[in-house]
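Hi again,

Forgot to attach this to my earlier email, sorry! This is the prediction with phosphoenolpyruvate bound. I've pasted everything inline since the attachment limit keeps bouncing my files.
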Amino acid sequence: MRKKIVAGNWKMNKTITEAMELAVHLTEYQNEFPKDTEVILAPPALYLGSLELMEHLNVQLAGQNCSEKDSGAYTGEISAGMLKAMNVQYCLVGHSERRQYFGETDEIIKNKVDACLRNEITPIFCCGEVLAEREASTHFVCVLKQLQGALWHLSSEQVKSVVIAYEPVWAIGTGVTATTTQAQEMHAFIRLSLGNHFGDDVAESISILYGGSVSPLNSAELFAQNDVDGGLVGGASLKAKDFAAIIQST
Ligand code: PEP
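Structure tokens for the complex follow:
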């Protein structure tokens, strides 16, 4: 059985006070969360320590990014080992905003996947095409290239410790969601590609999340698709009620 996961990516939003309020608000809903769904929060890294100390918050924590390096003179960077030492279990890797605004290439993303695995952090590897690629019908080629670039060097055992998030860039923060058909066909393609490279058993065990304008209005039908194992949620994770409703729809 694949793990169902809902992860909230807070990006660069909220002061510490607002972040703690949001987390407290979320605890008011958590008794109603499905027991077999893993709930993950990826707050700004500065707040990980405070959230980790919140006794009643039943979530796993994720970094939004980490360094390729383990330590050294890399001003401003945070290593996967540092995240691990703060009881963080997951880290987003290769989010489209990192690719687009911070020049992250497939090679850098591959190195970050490796850094996570070296430090026993589960990478949530993000992939997805831009609108021009979708319009040119090259979206499958694009996503396959991203998978090959960052994951294909791993062993079957290693890749089992990776979570994949398919996030079409045209759907992130735009209010435009992939249709259930578009989401399912890409998730099935990702799983087929994983199966061809690593074996079907491995592919069957990997959780593939959908991300891109997930909301309480569309989450249930997206998550009902065979190969959609949950979601990576940006904007809607900033409102406890909406995020809770999305979790409850898994
Ligand atoms: C994201 O940033 O990963 C994301 C999916 O954002 P949103 O839900 O706001 O589209």
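The chain has one domain: 4-248. The beta strands are 4-9, 37-42, 60-63, 90-93, 122-127, 163-166, 208-211, 230-233.

That should be everything now.

G.
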